[in-house]
Amino acid sequence: MNAVGCAASICMAAGGAFSEIANGSLAMAATWDAATTTWTDVSPDLGNLCAGFNDCSWTSLMTCGSPANCMSFFKTFFAWNGST
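^ thats the sequence. predicted structure below, dont judge the formating
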């Protein structure tokens, strides 16, 4: 993961990875809930974010103001509302 942001008892991690199945780069994101000590993969919510990039370095900065308010900036803008 390229970037991590935390607020209260949650953290969001985001970045890119390579998938042989997808034959290229894909966006990855996950949330950490310290209260339940669980990771949740939210990558499907990112859709085809990496299409057109030579690599999926789509974020280098993640910031969270609350568990339901995270934003990322770099090659594109990404906002998280706590569920999508």
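The chain has a mean pLDDT of 77.
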